[in-house]
Amino acid sequence: MEVVGKYVGVPATQGRGWHSFDLKWLVIGSSVAVVAYLALMPLGFLLWQSFFTPQTATKAAEFTYDNYLTAYSSSETLKLFFTSLRFATGTSIFSFIVGTLLAWMNERTNTPLKPLFFALSIIPLIIPGVLFTVAWIMLASPKIGIVNLLLQELFNTDYVFVNIYSIWGMIWVDGLHYSSMAFLIMSAAFRSMDPSLEESAMMSGASVPQVAWHITLKLTWPAIFATLLILFVRSIESFEVPALLGLPVGIQVFTSSIYQAIHQYPSKIGLASSYAVTLLMITTIGIYCQSKLSGQGNKYSTVTGKGFRPRAMDLGGWRYVTATVFLLYFSLIVVLPFLVLLWSSLQKFYSVPSLAALHNLSFDAYAFILTYPTLASAVTNSLILAVGCATLVMLLTSVICWIVVKTKLPGRWILDNLASLPMVFPGLVLGLAIMIFYLNFDIGIYGTMWIMFIAYVTRFMPYGLRYNTTSMLQIHKELEESAAMSGASWGTTFWRIIVPLLKPGLMAGWIYIMIVSIRELSTSILLYSPGTEVVSVLIWELWENGQYVELSALGVMFIIALFMLVMAAQLVGKRFGVKED
Amino acid sequence: MLKVNALYTEYPNDKGEIVKAAQNVSFEVPEGKLFTLLGPSGCGKTTTLRSIAGLERPRAGEISVDGVAVYSSEQGIFLPPNKRNFGMVFQSYAIWPHMNVFQNAAFPLRVGTRKFTKKEIEEKVMRVLTAVGLEQFADREATKMSGGQQQRLALARALVMEPKLLLLDEPLSNLDAKLRERMRFELKRMQRELRLTTVYVTHDQGEALALSHEIAVMSAGHVVQIGSPRDIYERPRNKFVADFVGLTNFLDATVEAPDPAHDDGYRVNSCIGQLSVTSMDKFAKGDTVLVSVRPEDIELYETRPAGPNVIEGRVDFKVFLGEYMDYQIKIGDRQILARTHPSFKSPVGESVYLKMHPGKCITIQDNTQYRKAA
User: Fold this and answer.
1) Which fold has domain B240-373?
2) What is the ipTM metric for this complex?
3) Helices marked H in B6-146 — which ranges?
4) In this predicted model, what pLDDT tens digit does every residue of A307-362 receive, in sequence order?
5) Chain B hits for A485, Cβ within 8 Å
6) How far apart are CA A311 and CA B272, in angstroms?
7) CATH assignment of A75-301+324-361?
8) Nearest C-alpha neighbor of A135 from the set A298, A323, A303, A342
C-alpha cells in the first residue's frame, strides 16, 4: 500500500451531518469542554494577571509591566533565582544518587531484605511532606533537635552539630523525601533493560566496570537525565520544606516567596503572579524536555515484550554492607521521623527522650486533638473532596483517554496534552491561578469547597489520565468492535464493555487520587477559608500556632489512616491484578 | 445477496498520511455461499471486510445487502455497524473477559434494537451454544476457555442474532495447526448446514481452498482473480495468483505451434526444453509466455517413461518432509522443484526423468504489476 498525502477523511464511526448528533457527541463534547476549561483557564488568567496592577475599591486594574520590572530589576530576585536553582539542583542530585544506589542494590544484587525495598514505594504516599519536614525539625533543629541535644549531652558541650535551618538542611530533608521517587523510576529503568545486552558485553571479554561504564551507563543515560529533570522539577516546586525550613532563616525560593507575597498585607498578587510565571516556565521546560527524553512510547510506560529477570550480582560479604546501608536509609526515612512524632505526641510538653520524660507519657495530646473544634469538619472536608475529586477525575479522563487512544479524530493529541497540562503547574502556582481567577470572575464559589474541588480535579487530572491510558491501551480494539457488530450503541458499548474492562485502572487510579488529595497541602493553603479547612491545612495551622505536641498526635493518626488506605489500595490492586505504578 | 461495487478505501497511518487500501473492489456473494478474500497481509482484504461490517468508512463505492444499500457514496448512505445486523468473528475472537460464556453470547440480544424476554434470550443462547458444542460451559468464565472454545464462542455470539451476513476475519489464525485443521471442517459443516451467506478473510491459501465456494485473490488493493477454488489453483490467471496460491515453478517459454493432441494445447520451447502446455488465451507463433507447473504435478522416474513432456535432469538436493519429499532438480542451469511420495528415493547427483502432464502445464499472463506486488 502506498502513502499518498495527508489524511483529511472522517472516522468511520462518525455519522453524516447534524442529524446524527447523539449521546456520544454530547458526552465527548462536554468532557472536552471541561478539560479545556480546567487546563487553560488558570494558565491564561495567571499570565493576564501578572500584567496588571491590583484592583482596589477606588482604582480599577491597569495594564503594567511593573510586576515584572519589580521582580526582575531587584537583586533580590536574582538571589531568589539562584537559591531556587541551588536548592533544586542539590535536592535532585542527592535524591538521585540515593535512589539509584538503592535501585541498583534491589534490582541487580543479592542484597538481603528485598521485601522491605518494596515498602519504599508506598512511603512517600504515607508520610506527607509537611509531617516529614516537621519530624526532621524535631530531629535536627539547633535548639530542640534530638540529634543535637543527645550529642551535646554526650560530649558535654553546646556546639550545634547539625542545623536543619540551612540550605543543606533543606536539601537533606527534601532529597530524602524524593529519593523514594528516584528509587522507583530507576528501578523501572534497570528492570526494562535487556540483560542480554550486558551479558553479551561480558562474553566479549569486558570486565564488570567496563560493562557498567560502556553498556549499562550509556544505555540508561536518557533515563538518568530524564529522572534528574523530573526530580529537579519536583524539588523546585516543593513548598513544605522551603516554607518550614527556609523562611524562618530568610532562605527564599520561588514557592516560599509566592506564599509570602500572598500572605502579607496588602497581598501582592501581581508580584506573586510574576514569580509564578517564572516558576511555571522553569517547570514547563523541565517537563517538556523530560517527556521528549523519555520518548513518545515511554510516556505511558506500557509493558511490552517479555519481562526480564536479570541475574543478580553476587556481592559476597559485601551484601551485609549494602543491607546495613539500606537499613540506615530506612530508619532515616521512616523509622526516625515516625518515632519522633510518636514520642512527641505522647508528651505533655515537647521534650527530649530521656528516662525522666518517660514518666510523663500521656495521651492528653490525642484527647486534645480529638476534641479540637475544627477536626471533625476538616476530616469531613478532606474525605468529601478526596472521594469527589477521585470519582470525577477517573470518569472524565476515561472519556478523554478513549478519544485519545481509540479514535482517529484529528486533533486528539491536543486533548491529550491539555489534560496533561496541569502536570507542569506547581501546586502553589495552581492554587494562586485559581484563586485569582475566581476572585475576578465571581460566580460565588470563592471561599467555598467548590473552589478547592476545582483545584483538586485540575491538579490530579494528569494522574487519572495516566492510569486510564495504561488500561485503555490493553483493551483490544476488537472488543469494542464486536459490541458494535452485536448491535450495541456507543453509550452501551462504553458503559458495558469499556468501563468494566477499565476497572483495574479505574480502581487503582481512584484510590491513588484519593490518597494524594487527602494529603494535598500546597494548593489548599491558598484556597481554604474558615470552615473549609482540610486535614493538611489543620496540621499547618497547628505548626504556626506552635502546638507541636498536638500536631504530632494528629500526624501519627494521619499517617496510620493513610497507611490503612494504602494497604487497602494494595489489596484492591492484587484483587484486580493492578501492577504497581 | 451481498453486492460490493467499485469500493475504494483509505485510512490514515500513524503519521496521518493516507494509505490506499482497497482499490475498485467489486464482487457479489450469492445467498448461502461462502466467499473468501485471499491475499498477503496489506493487500486490503481486511479493510474490505471492515467496510462491509461498517467499522470503516470507505472513500467511495457501494455496498448493498439484498438490494438495500448499507453504504453508498453517491446517495450519502452510511449505516453504522450496530444497525447492520451482521455477525462478525474477529481475529482475536474479542471475547469480553468480564462476562461469562452465557453473557458473552447473550450480549447481542440484550443490546440490540429488538427486545427479547428473558426466556427468549435463554432459549436462543442455549440453542446456539449447543450448535457450537459449548452448552455445558454456559456458566464458565470466558477467559478460562481454550483457544478453540473461545473461537466457537465468538462464532456463537455472531450467530445468536440470526445475522443476514456472517463476516469472518482470519478466525483460525490464532489456533495451533491441529486445532486449525479441525475447526476448518467444523466451520465448513456449520456454514453448509445453516446456509449462511459468509465473507471470509484469510491469508492462508489452504483454508481458502478448503472452505470456499468462491475465492477473490487480492493484491495491492486490487482483486486480481475471482473463481472457484479449483479455478484459482489449477487455472491461475496471472503470475501473482499462481505464486501466492501454492508453490509453483515458472518457466519462460516461446510459442511454437498449437498442439493438435489436446484442446487449448500449444507446443512451446521453454527454458528446460520442448513442452506441451495448456492455455486459456490464444497465442501466435513466437509469443513469449510464462508456464507454471506445480511441484506435485511433476512425476519423477529413474528410467525414461513413455509419453509427452519428459525431460532429463539431475538431483541437486532433496528434503525429507514426512508426508512427501521435495527434490531440487537441475536441468541445464535451471532449478525445478518436484514433490514426490517419500517412497521415491534417488541419490543426489543421479539422473532422473521429469514427466509433466500437458494439462497441468499452464500458461499465465506475466503482468508486471502483479510481479512487483508479489
Assistant:
1) OB fold (Dihydrolipoamide Acetyltransferase, E2P) (2.40.50)
2) 0.73
3) 45-53, 101-111, 118-131
4) 445 556 677 778 888 889 888 998 898 889 999 999 888 887 777 777 677 777 88
5) 53, 55, 81-82, 84, 86-88, 158, 167
6) 59
7) 1.10.3720.10
8) A342
